[in-house]
Design goal:
The protein is of the alpha+beta class. It contains seven helices and twelve strands. It has one domain: 4-Layer Sandwich (Phosphatase 2c, domain 1), CATH 3.60.40. Strands 2, 3, 4, 5, 6, 9 and 12 form a seven-stranded antiparallel beta sheet that branches. The protein has a five-stranded antiparallel beta sheet with strand order 1-11-10-7-8. Strand 2 and strand 3 form a beta hairpin. The longest helix is centred in the first third of the chain and has 17 residues. The structure holds manganese (II) ion (MN).
């Protein structure tokens, strides 16, 4: 199997600056959504991406991810302040089998589409997620709740960032979406599922999702990274679809230098 990806970020229609950052640098893919006054949110999300960038081929482990987030956390707290979400997925192997190692702090998200069904892998650290978990509000109500933007965990806002981890089998036909809440605030799961089911390259799908979130209002910064697992040359293709403009270079937005 081979892995191809695309990414798109947009300031949106309301915010003056884009405080989101992303990294596409296999084996690691990251989205970070900065928060805080002045430019501190932008600096915080960039600090997370910079810490992960250029890690090179390595066996990504939860310990290494936690260590990187700890260093970024310290830099943010000793620097401009503010905070940032951090969510990501790494290509890993365990006992010779391929997996996604997914991590999350905050309310950016990782979704997995297998071509028909959509599954949200990450679980938000947010006030509304806690209300949903407690059975006090429905997920639908959470989308419009006045406290929907309040995160309960972030990088930079406490002494010790604590990510959650998931290990998910990685299979041919998988399409993974990493996105900031500027996407999920505008597009519900049905719209996201529909966008991920469409044919086209990962880059085309990332651009389509960002355009959809903009059309729906674009009230926040919008960032999405789309990762496709498809057959290597010579393997049979399970699904059709154009494969134009696939991006195979490391890309980053937000990391200075
Ligand atoms: Mn946001």
């Amino acid at each position: 199997m081979q892995v191809v990806w695309g990414a798109q970020t947009d300031r949106g229609r309301v915010r003056e600056i884009n405080e989101d950052a992303f990294l596409t640098d296999p084996p690691l893919f990251v989205v970070a959504d900065g928060m805080g006054g002045y430019e501190s949110g932008e600096i915080a999300s960039a600090a997370v991406v910079a810490q992960f960038a250029g890690a090179g081929p390595r066996d990504v482990t939860p310990e290494w991810i936690t260590e990187c987030l700890g260093i970024a956390n310290r830099r943010i707290r000793e620097g401009a302040g503010g905070g940032t979400t951090a969510t990501g997925a790494a290509l890993v192997e365990r006992d010779g089998r391929p997996y996604w190692l997914v991590f999350n702090i905050g309310d950016s998200r990782v979704y997995l589409s297998d071509g028909s069904d959509l599954r949200q892998i990450s679980v938000d650290h947010s006030v509304v997620q806690e209300l949903v978990d407690a059975g006090k509000i429905t997920p639908e109500r959470a989308r419009t709740h006045p406290e929907r933007h309040i995160v309960t965990r972030a990088v930079g806002t406490a002494a010790d960032p604590r990510p959650d981890f998931w290990l998910v089998p990685r299979e041919l036909g998988d399409r993974l979406l990493l996105c900031s809440d500027g996407v999920t605030g505008e597009l519900d799961d049905a719209a996201i599922a529909d966008a991920l089911r469409q044919p086209g390259s990962a880059q085309a799908v990332a651009e389509r999702i960002a355009a959809g979130a903009l059309r729906a209002g674009g009230r926040d910064n919008i960032t999405c990274v789309v990762i496709d697992v498809r057959p290597s040359d010579g393997e049979s293709t399970p699904v059709g679809g154009e494969q134009d403009r696939d991006d195979t270079r490391p890309r980053t937005r937000g990391a200075p230098g």
